[in-house]
Amino acid sequence: MSENEEKNNGSALFDIQSLASEVGVDEVVLTEMAKAGVFYGHKKSRKDPQFDEYIYGLRNGVAIIDLVKTIKAIDIVAGFIKSSLAEKKTFMIVGTQAASRNAVIKLSEALGNAPYVVNRWIGGLITNFGIVGKRIDYFKKRKLDLEQGKFEGYTKKEKLLISREVEKMGILFTGLENFTKIPDIMFVIDPSLKGHSTAVHEATLHKMKLVGIIDNDDNPGQMTYFIPANDHSKASVEWVINALVDKIKS
Predict the structure, then answer these.
(1) pLDDT at residue 99, rounded to an integer
(2) How far apart are CA 240 and CA 232, in angstroms?
(3) Best CA proximity match to 40, nearest among 17, 74, 8
(4) What phi, psi does 36 have (nearest 5°)?
(5) SS3 helix, strand, coil % of the chain, rounded to 5?
(6) Contacts of 171 (CB under 8 A, 6+ apart)
(7) What is the pLDDT of residues 198-240, one digit of tens each?
(8) Contact at 8 Å (CB) between 200 and 226?
(9) pTM over 0.90
(10) How far apart are the C-alpha atoms of 84 and 112, rounded to whole Å?
(11) Closest CA to 16 of 54, 71, 68
(12) What 8-state DSSP symbol labels residue 176?
């Protein structure tokens, strides 16, 4: 289902007023979540059995995520993040879907410009930190030198090659400028996504805590804390991250 269809049909799946009254949740918030499609999971055939308790029901074979549990989870995750920041713990945010890019950058800023990955996960980013870290340092130096005009004495061809080199490295390393040590916590949007599973595996090997947004095709058991929600829609991911950031700042 497209994002526009989610926005148009979202509230039709719930009696928002009755649900809000029954569980004591703000009706306006539930309506916003429904319009953003936060409750849309994947087809039942793709579900992870451990996610069942976060499912409100099924509609046309598609899992409908329990929005009340999503709201409670946002509070829990925000509390964990705030206490972790108070303890000077460090974060890395991973979200390589186009739908996640803006949300990842916003969360990074809220966490003190934490390093993030929005293009693709570099294999060994955590497990081979010493080697990859040197490449990131090289990228930062070349980029800075280029910005400061330190290659003005070079030929046009040489400057073009350097510019292309920085551009290619930027695809890999943009967002990792502050990646100076292995973080304590990884926040990942859709941990089962190809590439993200490698990130999760590396984080687990280094005993990093895993937090993030997961859908019904993800395994809750591998997460320290998580927010059950539609993790493949721009509107949904941005709604969840906006709500989370507001809680963190409050």
Answers:
(1) 92
(2) 12
(3) 8
(4) -80, -5
(5) 55, 15, 30
(6) 119
(7) 999 999 999 999 999 999 988 999 999 999 999 999 999 999 9
(8) no
(9) no
(10) 12
(11) 68
(12) -
